[in-house]
Design goal:
alpha+beta, tt1808, chain A, six-stranded mixed sheet, two-stranded antiparallel sheet, 4 helices, 28% strand
């Protein structure tokens, strides 16, 4: 008789298509804060007031900086790859909101994550996911450190150019080089 070889248990990786079916079927509640990243359904921490304020400030400042021809999307899905559909705090995409009526955008010119409890996740798995698909510019607004981490030049799962800016310093987004933002205006 042949020996039975047991394999170790492994996690099930969800595809974006399966995840969207689960969402449509109502498996998750309206108040569930989740996203799909690298095939895993990740539960996000509840937002604190400073986090929400930072998102609103970013929305306002980036809408002014990018102007017509860009859509600044707050906490909406981004169809990155077959196993990832994150909901970044801010994604700046080309076009108009109606351009994405039938499908989530697959690329962004700029992604910003606001980090308080999620700093390690945003610097780690999120950075790797965005770099892997070639997002040219990724920012992490670190609320605890009152800094803005600007990550550019993605290669593999890393960014070759990473700068940390403090309140009073300025940054120009790659896709809106004529706009200059003061980090102080982004912090709550």
């Amino acid at each position: 008789m042949a020996a039975i070889v047991e394999s170790p248990p492994r996690a099930h990786r969800f595809t974006r298509a399966r995840y969207e079916q689960m969402v449509a079927a109502g498996i998750f509640g309206a108040n569930d804060r989740i996203e799909l990243l690298d095939g895993e359904i990740v539960e996000m921490a509840p937002q604190k007031s400073r986090h929400a304020t930072a998102i609103r400030l970013l929305e306002r400042e980036l809408s002014q900086a990018f102007g017509a021809g860009f859509d600044v999307r707050a906490q909406l899905p981004l169809a990155l790859e077959a196993h990832s559909e994150p909901e970044p705090d801010i994604a700046v995409v080309r076009g108009h909101p109606r351009d994405y009526r039938d499908a989530h955008p697959q690329h962004a010119e700029l992604i910003v994550e606001v980090a308080d409890a999620s700093l390690a996740y945003d610097r780690g798995r999120k950075l790797a996911a965005y770099a892997r698909v070639g997002i040219a510019e990724y920012w992490v607004l670190d609320l605890a450190g009152n800094t803005l981490e600007v990550c550019r030049a993605p290669r593999g799962e890393q960014n070759l150019d990473r700068r940390v800016l403090r309140a009073g310093e300025r940054v120009s987004p790659l896709a809106a080089p004529d706009a200059t933002l003061d980090v102080s205006d982004l912090l709550p």
